[in-house]
Amino acid sequence: MLRMTLMAAVLAAPAVAQELRAPDQITGANDAARSAALFTEMGKVLQHPRCLNCHPVTGGPTQGDDMHPHNPPIVRGEADFGAAGLNCNSCHGTENIPYLTRTGSIPGHDPWQLAPVSMGWQGRSLAEICAQIKDPARNGGKDLAAILDHHARDGLVGWGWAPGEGRTPAPGSQQLFGELTRAWIDTGAVCPAG
Amino acid sequence: MTTLTINGAERTLDVDPDTPLLWVLRDELRLTGTKFGCGVAQCGACTVMLNGMPRRACVTPIRTLAGADVTTIEGMSGREYDAVQAAWRALDVPQCGWCQSGQVMSATMLLQQLPAPTDQQIDEAMAGNICRCATYHRIRTAIHDAARTLEG
Ligand code: FES
Ligand code: FES
């Protein structure tokens, strides 16, 4: 059942799915250029709808590969957890749950909530996202080691590659994303221009 | 086998672990106050309280509920719930009634979290509960009325 679900998800993957290259495939004229190129590769994940949908800048979450507004309409709420009376956990549990009455699934993970406003990425350039990610005032007080840990091991980040039936996974794997992040940090954690 | 508490009574259920709580409530336990509307977390008709917070029973497999505390409309009590029930009755909020046990769950949680909600806060809280009969205006009025009785 799980294998069929995964196969269906892979087969159903639309054009937005892209390959994620490994760090050794990414070159640059010098460390700084390579570092920026590594972050640009990481951007395939950071700007994928699976990640962006819960990193809104204003308002509530979006859904789908076309990032349409969440239905039912959901506001962020004070705790990044939906409105009073309609918190995220009204519908989202601790794991993806396949629907029984039609194809698809409702996504879930423990925890399940929006990224804070300071980590809102929708509509932002990769350079702006990079600056946000590196800024402890906006990234939840994380240094580079904590960012690596977050990218490589955080469960909700990892959900992006196991999003349940009916959703395109983020490109590559969390392990590869972690390796790219490590290489980006090792080369100076340089942000791309623009 | 899953053991959980439903309306204060411990229940051990021998059903397929993937069976949604909604199926168990209605088909096994005959607690039919909780309704089926869509099965995909889009309408809110199946809302129950899970460990004190609203939860769509149609997307909640029984295997995830070991040790959980579930309250359906048949087992609801408490200050906010009583105020909501009284306001609902006074205004004759339901039309066909199908969506209403879900509406009452969300309204009760809203008043527990926000004792005096504005129109906008009510709309945001109730956005996940669809009413085919469009009783939305009466729902909003009833929530304001319930909030006023809680003040006093
Ligand atoms: S039946 Fe569960 S939300 Fe519609
Ligand atoms: S009263 Fe009929 S669906 Fe709400």
Architecture overview:
Chain B: InterPro entries: 2Fe-2S-bd (IPR002888), 2Fe-2S-bd_dom_sf (IPR036884), 2Fe-2S_ferredoxin-like_sf (IPR036010), 2Fe-2S_ferredoxin-type (IPR001041), 2Fe2S_fd_BS (IPR006058), Beta-grasp_dom_sf (IPR012675), Diverse_Oxidoreductases (IPR051452). The complex is a heterodimer of chains A (194) and B (152). Chain A contains 7 helices and 6 strands, in the order H-H-H-E-E-E-E-E-E-H-H-H-H. Chain A is mainly alpha-helical and 194 residues long. A two-stranded antiparallel ribbon of chain A has the order 1-2. Chain A has a two-stranded antiparallel ribbon with strand order 3-4. Chain A has a two-stranded antiparallel sheet with strand order 5-6. In chain A, a hairpin with a 2-residue loop joins strand 3 and strand 4. The radius of gyration of chain A is 17 Å and the shape is globular. About 6% of the residues of chain A have low confidence. Helices cover 38% and strands 14% of the residues of chain B. In chain B, helix 2 packs across helix 3 and helix 2 crosses helix 5. Chains A and B meet through strand 4 of A and strand 4, helix 3 and helix 4 of B. Bound molecules: FE2/S2 (inorganic) cluster (2 copies). The site of one FE2/S2 (inorganic) cluster has 12 residues of chain B, from loops.
Which SSEs are present, and which pair or pack?
The complex is a heterodimer of chains A (about 190) and B (about 150).
Chain A: H1 2-11, H2 31-46, H3 49-52, E1 62-63, E2 68-69, E3 82-83, E4 86-87, E5 97-98, E6 105-106, H4 126-134, H5 144-153, H6 155-158, H7 174-186
Antiparallel strand pairs in A: 1-2, 3-4, 5-6
Helix pairs in contact in A: 2-7, 5-7
Chain B: E1 2-6, E2 9-13, H1 21-28, E3 47-50, E4 53-56, E5 69-71, H2 79-91, H3 100-113, H4 119-125, H5 136-151
Helix pairs in contact in B: 2-3, 2-5
Bound molecules: FE2/S2 (inorganic) cluster (2 copies).
The site of one FE2/S2 (inorganic) cluster has 11 residues of chain B, from loops.
